[in-house]
Design brief:
It is found in: Cell membrane; Cytoplasm. Helix 12 links the parallel strand 6 and strand 7. An 8-stranded mixed β-sheet has the order 3-2-4-1-5-6-7-8, sandwiched between helices. It has 303 residues and is an alpha/beta fold. Helix 1 packs across helix 13 and helix 7 packs parallel to helix 8. It binds guanosine-5'-triphosphate (GTP). The site of guanosine-5'-triphosphate has 21 residues, from helix 7.
Length: 303
């Protein structure tokens, strides 16, 4: 399956529910009030966020003010304006100063453990040797789940018992990675502790251990955000952003929502690049974020 097909499949719900007749609505060379209203409704319903929608519509009006030519495809004009409202930056793949450390943070159930495993697969596809660190020691199931993934992917998982110090797990994972010349360490962390400040303190402690042991690491701190939680997810994300320097966002479960425009709102409100998107439950359903493919999949544009 091509990458575009993956995006298309993952965003089927949003496209079929909201964007299905966008081609009919938006095919003319003029832009009347009715079209604008219909378009606005679709974009807002997809959870893109009112601010972003207003900006996109303004830019469309500007573009149409100057009349579009016969050669221009209205849908591609809309697509390009949408793309300009998304920001991404490449997932760090360089392991020349190995090991590369990727720390995953986010609330419980956001898909962190699964994302850790799927991300391991991405790095393995690039030929990297990966170690997974089970630093969510709050939940026994999270440790077990990561071990199962490790078996399936044939990747080493460093784990201690439930309730042990996550920073110690991370320390061991780093020692292992150094001893075995591994390329990448992916750290799964807890999403819930007894109090929120405990959680943030724990994440900071993990980060300190990583920084102390490997210069320049962690190179990536990715916030894993459940794409089906809408505005709530964004509020949670802000708390993480305040506590720890996030380098990118992984939006999960975009396949499970009809409000798949959420990437725009996340980008706009958090001002953090989106690096990964979860488009399904299978191990190769986590994809490096591609704004053009994402918008093509929303609008049903075959490349
Ligand atoms: N459909 C779909 N399901 C996903 C995706 N990513 C994660 N999930 C599912 O979401 C559920 C929660 O994922 P976990 O990885 O356990 O979440 P977590 O954040 O690690 O949660 P804790 O371990 O409880 O902290 C699992 O059933 C995953 O299979 C996705 O992109 N699409």
């Amino acid at each position: 399956m091509s990458v575009l097909d993956k995006f298309m499949k993952g965003l089927t719900k949003t496209r079929k529910t909201l964007f299905h007749n966008i081609k009919t609505i938006f095919s003319g060379r003029t832009l009347d009030e009715d079209t604008l209203e219909e378009l606005e409704e679709i974009l807002i319903m997809s959870d893109m966020g009112v601010d972003v929608v207003e900006k996109i519509l303004e830019e469309l009006k500007d573009k149409y003010h100057n009349k579009i030519t016969d050669q221009e495809d209205p849908l591609l004009i809309l697509r390009d304006i949408m793309v300009s409202h998304l920001s991404t930056s490449p997932l760090i793949l360089d392991t020349s100063n190995a090991p590369l450390v990727v720390l995953l943070v986010g609330v419980n159930g956001s898909g962190k453990t699964t994302t850790a495993a799927k991300l391991a697969k991405i790095y393995m596809n690039y030929g990297k040797d990966v170690v997974l660190a089970a630093a969510d020691t709050f939940r026994a199931a999270a440790i077990e789940q990561l071990k199962e993934w490790g078996n399936r992917l044939n990747a080493t998982v460093i784990a201690h018992q439930k309730g042990s110090d996550p920073a110690a797990v991370v320390f061991d994972a780093i020692s292992h990675a150094k001893a075995k010349s591994k390329d990448v360490i992916i750290i799964d962390t807890a999403g819930r502790l007894h109090t929120k400040s405990n959680l943030m303190d724990e994440l900071k402690k993990i980060k300190r251990v990583v920084q102390r042991e490997i210069e320049g690491a962690p190179q990536e701190i990715l916030l894993v955000l459940d794409g089906t939680t809408g505005q709530n997810g964004i509020i949670q994300a802000k708390a993480f952003k305040e506590a720890i320097d996030i380098t990118g966002v992984a939006i999960t479960k975009l396949d499970g929502t009809a409000k798949g425009g959420i990437a725009f709102a996340i980008n706009h409100e958090l001002n953090i690049p989106i690096k990964l998107v979860g488009l399904g439950e299978k191990e190769d359903d986590l994809q490096i974020f591609d704004p053009v493919k994402y918008c093509n999949a929303l609008l049903g544009i075959e490349e």
